[in-house]
Amino acid sequence: MFITPHTSLALWISTRITDPLLAFILGVVSHFVLDIIPHGDEQLGRHIKDKKQRFIYFIKVATVDLALAILLLYFFVAHGPIVNYYVLASAVFGTWIPDFSWIAIEYFKLNKFYWYIVYHERVHRLINWQYSIVYGVPFQIIVTLSVLKISF
Ligand SMILES: [Zn+2]
């Protein structure tokens, strides 16, 4: 799933929890829970055959996604119900780290941690139902907006 819906859940967590460590743990857990739900981006970049080109494509998409997530975070800091900045930062970091680890392992070719990529992919296939990004993007927007609605 994109970073933006994960971030929206981090905002929600930050309004319910006062302990930064717990916020971080719940952020990580929430990431994998969201990833279990079939979200339509599993086929993203599959049309690109070259592995390196596909990774570059992923990074481009991730950059736009991250920019949206930061915008969302900025909007929340400006208008949302902040409980504690440390809690907010911990929750956001918790929801981001699972995908950032994946990108870092892939980018730096950290073969020792490749098991993590296998695990992350396995989470995505727990419910083996894939559908088009054409439905995936609207679905993820709905998830983001729904979580935002209960966060503000
Ligand atoms: Zn993920």
Automatic annotation (TrEMBL):
<feature type="transmembrane region" description="Helical">
    <location>
        <begin position="57"/>
        <end position="77"/>
    </location>
</feature>
<feature type="transmembrane region" description="Helical">
    <location>
        <begin position="83"/>
        <end position="105"/>
    </location>
</feature>
<protein>
    <submittedName>
        <fullName>Uncharacterized protein</fullName>
    </submittedName>
</protein>
<keyword id="KW-0472">Membrane</keyword>
<keyword id="KW-1133">Transmembrane helix</keyword>
<keyword id="KW-0812">Transmembrane</keyword>
<feature type="transmembrane region" description="Helical">
    <location>
        <begin position="126"/>
        <end position="148"/>
    </location>
</feature>
